[in-house]
Amino acid sequence: MKKETMKKETRKRTSEPPHKGVYTRLRPSETHGVGVFAIRRIPKGTSLFYGDPGGMVWIKRSKIRRLPAELRRFYEDFAVWRNGRVGCPRNFNRLTMAWYLNESKQPNVRCTEAFDFVALRAIKEGEELTVDYSTFSDPAVWRE
Question: Per the domain annotation, does 60 fall within a domain?
Fold first, then answer.
């Protein structure tokens, strides 16, 4: 790519500040391992994780059940399970913040049909964001 083209591409990509739409940060969680926490007040209805490239790939469960245990754990910890298929990030080396939402039966975040996350109510600074996994995923099981 020519230098001029690279400069134009860089300008396009950097026209918005990298902090636009950032409401959260990863921290140790008392709920489970690592969690997502509000770094400022989040109004009810706010779409979270602005700019998250998202995108999932769907894999048949049978394709991953015989993987080594440590690789299978990625699917257990960071995937959506539905009807014998597993939705996961395109590459586990590129996990975004949304994949670290912990579960609660009294969540403050909901998942849309498009797998976007929205604040169910106003969320205070310092509060952990949680979602009810059962509203968008079957339990992670290896039985066929």
Answer: yes
